[in-house]
Amino acid sequence: MVRICERMDFTIEQCSVLFLQALTNQPITIYGDRKQTRSFCCISDTVTGLMSLMMSPQAKGEVVNVGNTQEATIFEAAKKVKEAAKCKSTIEFRPDKKAPSAQIN
């Protein structure tokens, strides 16, 4: 999964679900425990890195990880979403299962 989101610190799909829940004042749901971590990267940083690699002859045929070395928990991401949305949603933990995709009707 590509973990990039313009000026956010979590994946696009996670952004969608967490923000949708926050903006509709639904509980913000985290599946599993609060220890799950992700390494996130701003899309502009990713594009800059990829462009640099494309222009570098030394990168030809090499496997390169373009990303961030700092990890954040999904719980930290949920707290940031709640703060950004200025909502009163609670953050709830559910048993580990496949998290739903955002559905906007």
For the structure shown, list the relevant keywords:
disordered N terminus; alpha+beta; 3 helices; 105 residues; elongated; two-stranded parallel ribbon; UDP-galactose 4-epimerase, domain 1; single chain
Task: Outline the structure in words.
The protein is of the alpha+beta class and 105 residues long. It has a single domain, classed as UDP-galactose 4-epimerase, domain 1. Helix content is 34%, strand content 13%. It has helices at 12-23, 43-54, 74-85; strands at residues 28-31, 37-39, 71-73, 91-94. The longest helix has 12 residues, at 12-23.
Could you describe the largest sheet, including whether it forms a barrel? 2 strands, parallel
Radius of gyration, CA atoms, in whole angstroms: 16 Å
Low-confidence stretches: 1-10
For the residues shown, what is the average pLDDT? Answer: 78
Q: Count all strands and give the number.
A: 4
Shape verdict: elongated
Binned, the helix content reads: 25-40%
Terminus-to-terminus distance? 25 Å
Count of alpha/pi helices: 3
Give the CATH class. Alpha Beta
* Spatial ordering of strands, largest sheet: 1-4
Q: Return the CATH architecture.
A: Alpha-Beta Complex
Please render the helix and strand layout as text.
Elements: H1 12-23, E1 28-31, E2 37-39, H2 43-54, E3 71-73, H3 74-85, E4 91-94
Parallel strand pairs: 1-4
Antiparallel strand pairs: 2-3
